[in-house]
Design brief:
The chain has 306 residues and is an alpha/beta fold. The chain has a single domain (3-55, 76-199, 218-299), classed as TIM Barrel (Alpha-Beta Barrel). The protein contains ten helices and 16 strands.
Length: 306
């Protein structure tokens, strides 16, 4: 991997700007290590809850011409078993790890934070934006700037790790949500999560393709939405952004950087191009930089802020 791709994120030097987002690989340390071996610069755990979750009944993933529709339902082994895998991973790798956590209230976020404080994780991600558990928990927390501010402010008081707030694209004004997160103490932002919910129909069976009927959209179809929201957020805040949504090539990754992202999440593309996609995108970014005569990643220009 080219040294040109080295960059910094929240005080850590990473060998690649590519991030494995939450929920893409399984929760085993070997799965996370596999992503690292194939070129990921940062890896993220599944969004962990206080108790294990089975998730939704299948089918939970459907492919269509624009990407994927999924309603996984936050399946995870629970915070204790999840962190055991993270700690095991850190015995084998010095790659930074983001532990993602999900709750529906401040008290549970605080409980989760206390667990993460005792782990070997490098960063704490607060998943405020999961759309495919709408049937259980209602509107994502990040739809409310007040709730976002309250949760981050409370967690900030006890967290020993930098806090990343994962925001939803399904909001009226992403800028005000992002500003609320920054003002409350978020050290970085992660956006976007899947768009939707959406729906697909099996015309032969005359029923929804997903058992849960609705799911979040990911993949190439959401890239223009992601770029627009990342750019709006970059124009409003002064903290780093993990930009994601439809990235499956080096060109896509460069667009994310130009829109204001500091590092880039690659999720659905793992399904489309295989786990090797990280190395492929790293090579494609390096090729772009050579063609445009950029010596290091930081030389790739950002768009002028709004």
């Amino acid at each position: 991997m080219s040294d040109k791709l080295k960059t910094k994120f929240l005080g850590k030097t990473i060998k690649s700007p590519l991030v494995l987002p939450a929920g893409i690989m399984d929760m085993s340390f070997s799965g996370l290590n596999y992503a690292v071996q194939n070129g990921a610069g940062i890896v993220t755990s599944k969004s962990l809850t206080l108790e294990p979750r089975m998730g939704h009944k299948g089918p939970v993933v459907a492919e269509f011409e624009g990407g994927l529709l999924n309603c996984m339902g936050l399946c995870n082994p629970g915070i204790e078993d999840g962190l055991a895998e993270i700690n095991q991973f850190k015995k084998h790798s010095d790659i930074p790890v983001i532990v993602s956590v999900f709750a529906t209230n401040i008290l549970d976020f605080l409980k989760l934070t206390k667990y993460v404080n005792k782990s070997k994780a490098d960063f704490l991600e607060l998943n405020l934006s999961c759309p495919n558990v709408f049937d259980e928990f209602g509107i994502p927390l990040s739809a409310s700037k007040e709730k976002v501010g309250e949760i981050i402010s409370a967690v900030k008081k006890i967290s020993k790790l930098p806090i990343i707030a994962k925001l939803s694209p399904n909001v009226y004004d992403i800028s005000e949500i992002a500003l609320s997160a920054e003002s409350a103490g978020a050290d970085a932002l992660c956006l976007i999560n899947t768009v939707g919910p959406g729906m697909l129909i099996d015309t032969k069976m005359v029923k929804p393709v997903l058992f849960n009927k609705f799911g979040g959209l990911s993949g190439p179809c959401i890239k223009p939405i992601a770029l627009k929201l990342i750019y709006q957020t970059y124009s409003a805040v002064n903290i780093p952004i993990i930009g994601m949504g439809g990235v499956k090539s080096g060109e896509d990754a460069v667009e994310m950087l130009m829109a204001g992202a500091t590092v880039i999440g690659v999720g659905t593309a793992v399904y489309c191009r295989g786990i090797e996609v990280f190395n492929k995108i790293n090579d494609e970014i390096t090729k772009f930089m050579k063609e445009e005569n950029y010596k290091k990643l930081s030389e790739i220009p950002k768009l002028k802020k709004l």
